[in-house]
Amino acid sequence: MxxxxxxxxxxxxxxxIINLAGTIYGYMWYESQLAITPLKFILFVPDSxxxxxFFTIFLFFYLFGRNVPYxxxxxxxxxxxxxxxxxxxxxxxxxxxxxxxxSGYMLIASHGAxxxxxxxxxxxxxxxxxxxxxxxxxxxHNDIIDYVFGMMPIYSSLTTxxxxxxxxTFWLSILSIGIAYWLTIRKRSIVKYYY
Length: 195
Fold this sequence. Notes:
The chain crosses the membrane at residues 12-30, 42-64, 71-92, 104-124, 168-185. By secondary structure, this protein is mostly helical.
């Protein structure tokens, strides 16, 4: 039943529209930070909207019966990583400040949904080792840009914990890459072995 819903063209189109709108809103949310970002780092600053852009591209092609494995790998890893990252950062902000704005709760809900949708479509991706390798390079390079060059998203109340957040983010990247491998390459090899 779930598979039927996920593959329903009307549902796919609705998901495409939601992700497209969320991507545009996400880039607008980063507007003030992008205004002060050196041009060479611009591509690596708006993490979450870029993740949802990857998934939006996947949905567009999937609606026409086509797979784009490099985009699928980037979508799977970055949706889970930045979805979970934003949930954790907003919960930390709530813990530190004792309160959270309505936009903070909205970010928890929307980014939690980002992480889940990337995982739900894993059975339909056509990811191979080369796609995981390129995505790993992109993801870990992005961490270097964020935490070595100081281009991470601005969360004013969390700035004193940047080293700890950078460490957490690195291991979240490794976890995300591992999950992508497990849900695609590893799962397919297990199925082939038993069937």
